[in-house]
Every structure is written in structure tokens, then in C-alpha cells.
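Reviewer comment 2.1 asked that we show a complete input and output for one of the modelled complexes. We chose the acetoacetyl-coenzyme A case, as it is the one discussed in the main text.
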Amino acid sequence: MARQPARDDPQDLVLVEHPASRRGPDGAALDPPEPLPGVALVTLNRPRALNALSFGLLLRLAEAVEALDADPGCRAIVLTGAGTRAFAAGADVAELAAQDAASLAAAPGFRGWDRVAAVATPTIAAVRGYALGGGAELAMACDMIVAGDDATFGQPEINLGIIPGAGGTQRLARAIGKARAMELVLTGRRVAAAEAERLGLVTRVVPAGEALAAALDLAAAVAAQPVEAVRAAVEAVRAAAEVPLAAGLDVERGLFRGLFGTPDQVEGMAAFLDRRPPRWRAPGPPAGAADGAS
Ligand code: CAA
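Response of the prediction step:
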């Protein structure tokens, strides 16, 4: 029987936990729960379809991540897939099969990857199982990837008569180099976690059950850092993949200078000179808010 698009409740396609709570080595929340201040967990929730990225899911995902980005209490976002089999097995092929060039260009869901990549808050993908096609592209749209040792990455679009269309040709080539990306895109070969780590595609590989816990711990470590410096660092490092070196160095210099005079720069340097730990200020109001600036 032909595969049909799965019917889902739009409200459940993406789950948000903010603040997220710390996980044990089996991925289960600790009991009693231990909230991780400043850390949000976003879960792609279509496990029966291996979290395939339908347009509906992509829209909900973009909305959820943008809402967290606008929340000053959110300082790091972890993105994961429900279940143990997949982060996401790609765009929803049953839905894609019904598209043409014009409908794809008009589909707001298809901008989901770019919308996730555009948020200022640092993002971490926690990947177990398949991250294929649009799933790999979503992981690569994040700032870091923590992979379980059961993770499998790949761009299998060539086997469907298409090419990666959500950043795969560009982000993969930038992550692992043109020659290696070309092989993976032209053959659709899947790459296991250990090879992905050797290629420099992922930040870290951990035992499968620990991927979410490790990603949340990493997010908590980032969330504990001074927020303006974190956002500046994210913008600067992202620029390395976007612009020529001279322009990237300009971006870095501008952001570096811009941090001087911020409360956290003053505090961080005073604390170092006083030989004491720094006391970072609480996150401020969202950008553009008029009242309550510290
Ligand atoms: N879209 C829609 N449904 C999908 C899916 C996808 N990308 N991947 C898996 N599913 C569904 C299957 O249809 C199946 O549903 P039913 O039980 O209702 O039949 C369920 O998830 C489980 O999948 P399988 O039975 O196929 O599981 P498996 O273990 O035999 O194989 C797999 C797993 C190798 C990941 C296989 O499902 C697969 O090859 N999936 C497609 C991968 C792919 O081609 N991804 C690229 C999509 S195109 C894209 O992403 C374009 C882009 O750049 C944006």
C-alpha cells in the first residue's frame, strides 16, 4: 500500500518544555525534577512517522523556537525528536510528493529550517537515530549537534530524484568540506555517529541514551554564561559560515568592541582582577522593550 501523509493533532506536533528539566543517563527526567534555568527543550513529536517534517510541524516548530527566542528567560534551546528511532527522517515524503515548484515556493512551512537557523538564542540538536534529509538539515541549522552513538546522518534526496532543499548542500559542504559533502549528496550514503564525529559534523558523540541529557547539560552550561557575550559569540561564529574572512573579522571586531561597557564585561573583568567568581546579571528584557532595562 502507498504511504499516506499521517494525520496529526497540530497542537501536539511540537512539544515545548521551558525551563527544561535535567535528564538522567537513560533520558528520563530526574525525580524530583531539576529545572535547568534558561534552558528550553523543543521536541519534534511525530514518532510514528520517525518525526518526518510535515509543513504543519515545520510551522509549529518555527513559531515555538521564535517564541522562545523572544523570551528573555530563554538562553539556550535544545531541539530533539520524540522516541528513540529518529531525530527526524526528513521532510514528509508523502506530502512532498504532492508538491510542484510553485506550491513549494509558496509553502510557509518550507521556511521552517531558515527560521530556526535565524534565532539569536544558541541552539543544540540532540540526535538519536535517523537524521536524514530535512532532519539532517535541521540538525545542521542548529549551532551544535550532540549525537547518540546510534545516530545516522545522511542526505538521501538523490534516491528520490531530488537534491537537499533545506540547506543540505550548503551547510554540509561548509561543515565537512566540498569533496566529502559531494560524495554524501551524490550517493545518499548514510554516515554513522562515529564517522560524523570524525568528519566534524557533530560537536560530540555520547552513548545513545545520554544524548538528550548531554545536550541539556551543554545548554545549561551555555545558559549560565553572560547572555550578551553568548549572543555576540553566536553571531560571530555563525558569520564564519556566511561571509568571507575579512567581512567575518569585521563582524567579530564590531561585536567584540560592542561588549565593552556592558555590565557583564565590567563585572567579568573586575571579578578576574579581584580574584573572585563573576556574578552575571539576570537576563534583560527582550530587545526593543522600553522599560526595566538593567
Ligand atoms: N516522510 C514521511 N514518512 C516517513 C518518512 C519521511 N521522510 N520517513 C519515515 N516515514 C514513515 C514511514 O512511511 C513509516 O510509516 P508507516 O508505518 O505509516 O508506513 C514510518 O515512518 C516508519 O518508517 P519505515 O517503515 O520506513 O522504517 P524503516 O526502519 O524501515 O526505515 C528509514 C527507516 C530508513 C528512515 C526510512 O523510513 C526512510 O528511508 N525514510 C525516508 C528518508 C528520506 O528519504 N528522507 C528525505 C526526505 S526528502 C527531504 O528531506 C527533502 C529536503 O531536503 C527538505
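The longest strand covers residues 39-44. We note this here for comparison with the apo prediction described in Section 3.2.
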